[in-house]
Amino acid sequence: MERRVVVTGLGAVSPLGNDVKTTWENMKNGVCGIDVVTKFDISEYKAKFAGEVRGFDPTLYIPRGDVRKTDLYTQYAVAAATQAYEDSGVSDPDPERFGVYIGSGIGGVHTLITEHAKLIEKGPARISPFFVPMMISNIASGTVAIKYRAQGPNIGIVTACATSTNSIGEAYRVIKHGYADLMLAGGSEAAILPLCFAGFISCQALSMAEEKERASIPFDKERAGFVMGEGGAVLMLEDYERAKARGARIYAELVGYGCTNDAHHMTAPDPEAVASSRAIALAAKEGGIAAGRNVYVNAHGTGTPLNDRTETRALKNVFGQDAYKLRVSSTKSMTGHMLGAAGGIEAMASVLALHDGVIPPTINYRVKDEECDLDITPNTAVEANIEYALSTSLGFGGHNGCLAFKKI
Asked: Which of 107, 168, 171, 385 has the greatest CB tally within 10 Å of its CB?
């Protein structure tokens, strides 16, 4: 028998705050977490802005002696997972029924760059014995499992910008079909580094805006690229009957998931939006969403010319004229694009939008684009009694993911 799956815990480290409460309050208030890069000298780079995590203290979540043995992306993941676990109120779960699906688009790139420089400058004998476990993209998921002795299903999914959405969606299926009772699921990323910045600039993906208010501007006609962000976000998913029996606070029910691939281009979305439309349609159908009314969409909304136009088309393909009744926004206007963590922070926003009845805004919106003409909640949050929320992710490699949540 298929089981119902609910969200009972949330955790986040983001450019808007180092916990869920701060991140969500800033998101509702339209605070911009994007500013001039401070992590390295940006003077020779065409792109100047990023959504950096500020004031993060890993020792709140990891023993001080172990911090140097973990890449920053793992630290963000452990912090978000710890918050989600503690927020859920779970105690003494059965290890064999408790799993972790936490992914990363890039993984321990900070460690890779640091150790490569050491190899060139000082030779092979100076490479850290922790280099490989710090670098690999599955180690965040493994580290969280060790912390909580979670011996159930464990996978570190890597699907670029769709990583967190796929992690949450696949974890949903694990519980729904009876392979686990509890899953910590989401993603993390820490790639605001010179090499990564230069790479995204070279593939013409980043915004070259001169002022931060015009850097990450999803659905605006003047949009010209995304802004890199960083952080981690994790949800605690739980079997509904188990959560109800223990009196858990339930944020929302996860009711649908769609996963497809464009099979079109390594970076550009299919402009016809065939497969991305199908991912949204699959999630909506499984979740029982038949029309656009009372539905919030946390759009992928990167602020690139192709993405936002394609995503608008996908929503119209799925909902027809009802697409104009959707409440849509892109929280990347505030966080930047957190890459492998993006789907996690946006799932969190979708869940809290349902729970609190507030649609977070798409900030810094000025110039209307006739091809992106849906209600994108410009500049100011709105109160709305919505029943469903969709969170969409479209990643390099053609990966499409969509999660459907229901108010409970």
From this structure: 168
